[in-house]
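Here is one chain, start to finish.
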Amino acid sequence: MNRINDAQKNRIRTRLINGARNYNKNLNNKVFLVLCDDGYITSVSFSKMNFKHMSGVKSDLPDEDFYNHALKGTLDLGNILSDQKYDISTLKKKTTAIEGISDVFYKDGNKVLLIDSLKTHTYTFPVALRNIQSKICVGFVGASHVARSLRKDTEQSLRDNEKRVLAIFEKINGNNLYDKIVYLSDVKKLYDKNNDFVNMLGGSVEYKLLEILTKPE
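Its structure:
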């Protein structure tokens, strides 16, 4: 076990509150369609139930309560256990990463890479996304690819296959169609590689893509 003091807890608490508000605004209950330059298409999602696990912080609160208290700013120092699994250096890295977790999509989409099978010492994630600028890497689990692991980048040796991302679209979990463009680079290449994604898009998004595609040089 690694013991932390109240001053360290307070800094962790601040990052958790900022992270929960960022997470709630940009990621929670959302699904993202990710399209790569080799034609590969997948979707990933985020749930508030995994926020606590990704933070690396041990608490006396259940997962959902931990998230809700952080979101409301009512997370107390007493909710953060003095004896932690990780040392303070690792906790700082993890909570700093979760404070800026949406950077994996929103900071600069041109810097986003999809990792097909991310192998760590304890688990192989079928899909991961990393932003080479912010150095944040998110691992996704299960058939629906739900975010479960958060780390500061990864060693090159752990990546089997990296793909450049051409586009990212967003929808609310439960909706049928993706109705927001998060990131878009080469539209022509997007259609050339695999146009199966078109039926997954809302009308306004599809119209925007066609407008870009048919725009005179």
